[in-house]
């Protein structure tokens, strides 16, 4: 249960030429660990997540999830892979205004063809895990920014993904709330045994990452470094 990117190159049209967004990127993210990816705006971090999420097909290279290469999969197969194996935490929660916190999670079960009513106990348990049991029946406008982001994280875990991709989760939060969100992601990574990629611009949030790498102009500019000894601790 891991995520591996091997020699990923991604280019975009740029007039008569092509702009290189990712240049021979390789990453290996074991289960129960966090790989933090840092770098300035425009360095390729969002492109890296899009490729890892199978939302964009790279020009060259291979994305392997749980030992299965995604190369050659049809759109339907990739969509099924995302629904059942990949959780994505966006920068902004993008919650549905008409739904309560628990209903935001139940919708994920509906998308995968399961009965939302039967999934309610899991949705409530996840909200409890992120400290929002008392807010389960509140709508987004009744929640703080930090609470909405925690719903966002719980929603990404609803279908028990093996890969969790987190894009700048603290960009709209103050330092204390941002630190709490990072701690939560760390806890859930170990507890759910996910292979987590955390994209962040804030190096102060890296203390709980298992390993860290830096992107610059689409290239890895620093070797992968171990930043935590927690490893694959899944006993939480």
Entry keywords:
236 residues, alpha/beta, Rossmann fold, 6-stranded mixed sheet, 4-stranded antiparallel sheet, 10 strands, 30% helix, 29% strand, disordered C terminus, ATP-binding, P-loop_NTPase, AAA+_ATPase
What does this structure look like?
The protein is α/β, with parallel strands linked by helices and 236 residues long. It has one domain: Rossmann fold. It is 30% helix and 29% strand. The protein contains six helices and ten strands; from the N terminus they run E-E-E-H-E-E-H-E-H-H-H-E-H-E-E-E. Strands 6-7-8-3-9-10 form a six-stranded mixed beta sheet. The protein has a four-stranded antiparallel beta sheet with strand order 2-1-4-5. Strand 9 (211-216) and strand 10 (219-226) form a beta hairpin. Helix 3 runs parallel beside helix 5 (145-156). It is globular, with a radius of gyration of 17 Å.
> What structural class do you assign from the helix and strand content?
alpha/beta
Rg result: 17 Å
CATH fold-level topology: Rossmann fold
CATH class: Alpha Beta
Instruction: Give, in spatial order, the strands making up the sheet with the most strands.
Output: 6-7-8-3-9-10
Which architecture per CATH? 3-Layer(aba) Sandwich
Largest sheet: 6 strands, mixed
Distance between the termini: 18 Å
Secondary-structure map:
Elements: E1 3-14, E2 17-29, E3 33-38, H1 45-52, E4 60-65, E5 68-69, H2 75-85, E6 86-89, H3 101-111, H4 120-129, H5 145-156, E7 163-167, H6 175-192, E8 195-200, E9 211-216, E10 219-226
Parallel strand pairs: 3-8, 3-9, 6-7, 7-8
Antiparallel strand pairs: 1-2, 1-4, 4-5, 9-10
Helix pairs in contact: 3-4, 3-5, 4-5, 5-6
């Amino acid at each position: 249960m891991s995520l591996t990117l091997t020699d990923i190159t991604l280019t975009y049209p740029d007039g008569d030429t092509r702009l290189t967004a990712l240049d021979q990127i390789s990453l290996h993210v074991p289960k129960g660990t966090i790989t933090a990816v840092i770098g300035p705006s425009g360095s390729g971090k969002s492109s890296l997540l899009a490729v890892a999420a199978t939302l964009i097909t790279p020009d060259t290279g291979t994305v392997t999830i749980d030992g299965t290469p995604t190369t050659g999969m049809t759109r339907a197969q990739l969509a099924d892979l995302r629904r059942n194996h990949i959780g994505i935490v966006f920068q902004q929660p993008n919650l549905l205004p008409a739904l309560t916190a628990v209903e935001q999670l139940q919708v994920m079960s509906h998308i995968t063809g399961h009965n939302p009513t039967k999934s309610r106990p899991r949705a409530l348990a996840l909200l409890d895990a992120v400290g929002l049991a008392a807010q389960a029946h509140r709508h987004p406008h009744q929640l703080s920014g930090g609470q909405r982001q925690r719903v966002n994280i719980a929603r990404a875990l609803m279908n028990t993904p093996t890969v969790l991709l987190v894009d700048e989760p603290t960009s709209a939060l103050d330092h204390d709330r941002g630190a709490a969100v990072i701690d939560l992601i760390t806890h859930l990574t170990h507890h759910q045994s996910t292979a987590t990629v955390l994209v962040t611009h804030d190096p102060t949030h890296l203390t709980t990452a298992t390993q860290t790498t830096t992107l610059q102009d689409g290239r890895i500019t620093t070797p992968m470094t171990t930043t935590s000894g927690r490893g694959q601790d899944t006993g939480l």
